[in-house]
Specification:
single chain, 4 strands, about 80 residues, 4-stranded antiparallel β-sheet, binds zinc ion, elongated, alpha+beta
């Protein structure tokens, strides 16, 4: 008996977790897989891998926010003139 039958896939049910202009996160209540849906692609993670990714993203954003030299290196993204008091 196959473990990857259409019947198995039918039991997958993606529940919406969060939505923003950046994308959508859903969680399958059947296999606990997390889907990160971006504009042109969907990335699939098991729960632990998604937790690792989330930590990596939060850590990276904190570094960018707290270290002006990192932010200044972002190409094609000059800070708005209004913030340069
Ligand atoms: Zn599933």
């Amino acid at each position: 008996m196959s473990t990857n039958t259409p019947d198995d896939a039918d039991r997958c049910q993606q529940l919406s977790v969060a939505r923003s202009p950046a994308g959508t996160v859903t969680l399958c209540r059947h296999c606990r897989q997390v889907h990160l849906e971006l504009q042109y692609m969907t990335l699939r993670f098991d729960a632990e891998a998604f937790r690792e990714l989330a930590g990596l993203l939060v850590f990276s954003q904190r570094r960018i926010d707290s270290d002006p030299s990192l932010g200044a290196q972002l190409p094609n993204d000059p800070p708005p003139a209004g913030l340069m008091h």
